[in-house]
Each structure stands twice: as structure tokens, then as C-alpha cells.
């Protein structure tokens, strides 16, 4: 999310230069190509500060490339607000990005995402996922010019959850942040397994900590049991998994 916000802010700041060159990016590219920032590579020539699009955006660890579009919405205090949309295979999203004239911060509000997991590569190597993930109430604050993420909050719901072709129920998570740290308690309920735990970390640190408890509810497939025996520790009739995850390592994450 930090990389996506940085790219969006960079696009708007770069396009402010284009506004000084007849308003469109194509004019800036023609008149002063040396002034075109790297982050505007991929933006359409017709893009301006008021509206435009950049294609092929893929900040790590996103597994798919997408297109981001923006449209100026209104003046907001001593600054402006833009409507932003994101589209990619299996992904759609939207939000409102505010950027004050002082350029000391950027705020993302009223944002949400929908992800069709079956259209994405497997998050867990060799274990394809299915179902719909909805991210709602997404809010993020970015401090400038330090490029430091200071807030990230959202609620997540995974409906029609499937793992390796097996229905596993529904999952929910709440992402909160405070004093430079973030945490996402989550829970999954279904007819095969029950899971609960927390994923947590610090802003600016790609390493996250996973604390996960899985308990059988119904008949757990034998290959699942073998994989869980290898990944975690047997506790009572379930499994406890505690590990560090490098969120910058690329896809799959597990």
C-alpha cells in the first residue's frame, strides 16, 4: 500500500509539471523530456493533473499488473482531492486521495478493494485459493517528503473461501495501526477447519510476524495434515504456526 500511495502521489506531482506545459503530459514530453520523472513512465500522453491513466502498474508484492486512473474531484482546504480507481485481473478498487498544497502528507480515504482470488496466482505455493476478498473502510496516511506510512486501517472479509478446491467457509480481519506498528487479527470459520490468529509488523519493515492457530472441525484431508505437520507444531488436536514473513520477497508469500 505504501508503494501504491507513493506512485499515486508521484503521478500527481509530476503532472503538476505538465500543467505548466499546456496541461498535458504529451506537451511536457515533447518540450522538456528531461523533466519527465521516472514515475510517469507508462502514463498516457493525454494524462493531465485533472484526469489521466497509467497502465501496467505492479508495485511489489502484487502478483498482477493493473491500471490506475485519476480524476480531480474538488478543492479541499489548501489542496485538492482526486478520485482514484484501480483495475487489474481479479482486482477492482477505488478511493479518494487528498494532497495539500504544502505537500507534507497524502491521505487516502473512502477506499475499498475487491479481489477474486481464483484469478490470482496462489498466495500459498501449490495451494490455490478461491472466493472473494472485500476490503472496506481503507484509510492510509503518508508523511511527505519522508515517504513514511503513518496510518493504515481497513476491514477485510473473505467470502466463499476455498483452499485447493475445498470450501473452508468465511474469514474476517480488522487491520489497525498505532505508533508506527500495524496488526490484523483474523478468524476463519467453516466445516473443515477453524483458524484464528494475528499478522503484525512495523511500518518501514518488510518483515511481518504470523501467529496462527488451526483446529479441525470436520474431516481434514490427509495432504493438509501432512502440510500442517511440516509447517507448524501439533497442539492438542490442532496446529500452532508461528513464523516471520518477508512481505517484500514477492509472490507467493508462503
By helix and strand content, what is the structural category? Answer: mainly beta
How many β strands by DSSP?
Answer: 13
The H-and-E topology, N to C, reads as HHEEEEEEEEEEEHEE
**DSSP helical segment count:** 3
Distance between the termini: 19 Å
Shape assignment: elongated
Strand percentage lies at over 45%
Characterization of this structure:
By secondary structure, this protein is mainly β. It is 14% helix and 53% strand. The chain has helices at residues 2-19, 25-31, 222-231, and strands at 51-57, 66-75, 79-88, 91-100, 105-116, 129-143, 148-163, 166-178, 181-189, 193-202, 207-216, 233-235, 238-246. A 13-stranded antiparallel sheet has the order 1-2-3-4-5-6-7-8-9-10-11-13-12. Strand 6 (129-143) and strand 7 (148-163) form a beta hairpin. The longest helix is centred in the N-terminal third of the chain and has 18 residues, at 2-19.
How would you describe this structure in keywords?
254 residues; mainly beta; 13-stranded antiparallel beta sheet; 3 helices; 53% strand; elongated
Q: Gist?
A:
With about 250 residues, the protein is mainly beta.
Write the layout of secondary structure elements.
Blueprint: H1 2-19, H2 25-31, E1 51-57, E2 66-75, E3 79-88, E4 91-100, E5 105-116, E6 129-143, E7 148-163, E8 166-178, E9 181-189, E10 193-202, E11 207-216, H3 222-231, E12 233-235, E13 238-246
Antiparallel strand pairs: 1-2, 2-3, 3-4, 4-5, 5-6, 6-7, 7-8, 8-9, 9-10, 10-11, 11-13, 12-13
Helix pairs in contact: 1-2
